[in-house]
């Protein structure tokens, strides 16, 4: 919440000022909040929530703020796109034989990253990279500490047999030990900070996109008789915004993925030589399979969203119909709607197969560790096993990253297509010159126009064309049957 105090007018026209509590999370530094959350179970007693802990919400909330940020970033690019689109449509009408180039659509990714993300998103990425760095320095520090312990053990056995000038001196690596003790703590601090900032970014992302679509809906000519697909609109507000907000944080982990893979692999190659290339070879062999299934996965995600549009549309029509039909007719109406959904979703298990396969691809990395273990069985170097585990661990999540990238790309394209629909022209109201007239109309024209339609995807257009061809064939067969019956009647 932004506002701290709010005045409310009661039924007796009395102004009552409500004192709002300050947001403790924003009042104190992040490190203090982190320590408070960690030590709170030890020093605080459990207290139930009472009425004193609940206060009215202010009218100036964070949703309005994020919507204004998203609108300020989207409107300039949208205003530049509209004249270019009108010019493109005019060229298609004037010169139908030519193939003019369609203007590029405004980027919604820029609005998501630069307007809704701001500098906090960059801070989250830097914190994420620092947490990865502290995590990867721990095996090297462990190596130096173990080396010092091993030298000290050898010194205790060998020094009695060596001359004074060849005595083994064991020094404890205090710097490496201090870094080894601080690295887990710093890794947790920076990882928690990045997770917190990314979580806030996801919340603002969903709020800003929902606010943009709400403002766009008010500017469209949408009525009960419009051709706007209600199922598509409901999916945009629920499924697409949820997927963008949920899966967009996974994209930021792709930035740290090269560091998590190649830095440990460099340490492994430095100590083990060419034999470590076998692990990377197995990883490279598994990548084409993941990429192949990922392309199928993107198509399956698009079909799922189309099916979700139809399901929401049927659900909305069912709920609206239940208000007007009689009670006796309700079961029939609901059964018909349910059958419609069943017909369109009978092939869903086949379309969900790529999603189920992607979740099992990560288990192939266990083969990598097994091959390396067989190859280096006689080398007791613990830190290299840790490096090897760090190197292969990101590949277990690679399928999730690919799925997140596909879902965010498809959903943001659907939201962008809705945001670039033509809007109603807002004409300011001008008072009549004479006070005797309530309404004055000059040089007006009235005409019927088609309401806006949400653009269809390529697969949806192909499906509609195939259905139209099928209906045309059925109509031709029906016409041929009628002509045949008429000829038989004439013969009789």
TrEMBL record:
<keyword id="KW-0175">Coiled coil</keyword>
<dbReference type="InterPro" id="IPR050173">
    <property type="entry name" value="ABC_transporter_C-like"/>
</dbReference>
<keyword id="KW-0547">Nucleotide-binding</keyword>
<feature type="transmembrane region" description="Helical">
    <location>
        <begin position="251"/>
        <end position="273"/>
    </location>
</feature>
<keyword id="KW-0067">ATP-binding</keyword>
<keyword id="KW-0812">Transmembrane</keyword>
<feature type="transmembrane region" description="Helical">
    <location>
        <begin position="111"/>
        <end position="134"/>
    </location>
</feature>
<keyword id="KW-0472">Membrane</keyword>
<dbReference type="InterPro" id="IPR036640">
    <property type="entry name" value="ABC1_TM_sf"/>
</dbReference>
<protein>
    <recommendedName>
        <fullName>ABC transmembrane type-1 domain-containing protein</fullName>
    </recommendedName>
</protein>
<keyword id="KW-1133">Transmembrane helix</keyword>
<feature type="domain" description="ABC transmembrane type-1">
    <location>
        <begin position="122"/>
        <end position="327"/>
    </location>
</feature>
<feature type="coiled-coil region">
    <location>
        <begin position="458"/>
        <end position="492"/>
    </location>
</feature>
<feature type="transmembrane region" description="Helical">
    <location>
        <begin position="279"/>
        <end position="302"/>
    </location>
</feature>
<keyword id="KW-0813">Transport</keyword>
<feature type="transmembrane region" description="Helical">
    <location>
        <begin position="363"/>
        <end position="381"/>
    </location>
</feature>
<dbReference type="InterPro" id="IPR011527">
    <property type="entry name" value="ABC1_TM_dom"/>
</dbReference>
<feature type="transmembrane region" description="Helical">
    <location>
        <begin position="168"/>
        <end position="190"/>
    </location>
</feature>
<dbReference type="GO" id="GO:0016020">
    <property type="term" value="C:membrane"/>
</dbReference>
<dbReference type="Pfam" id="PF00664">
    <property type="entry name" value="ABC_membrane"/>
</dbReference>
<comment type="similarity">
    <text>Belongs to the ABC transporter superfamily. ABCC family. Conjugate transporter (TC 3.A.1.208) subfamily.</text>
</comment>
<feature type="transmembrane region" description="Helical">
    <location>
        <begin position="323"/>
        <end position="343"/>
    </location>
</feature>
<dbReference type="GO" id="GO:0005524">
    <property type="term" value="F:ATP binding"/>
</dbReference>
<dbReference type="GO" id="GO:0140359">
    <property type="term" value="F:ABC-type transporter activity"/>
</dbReference>
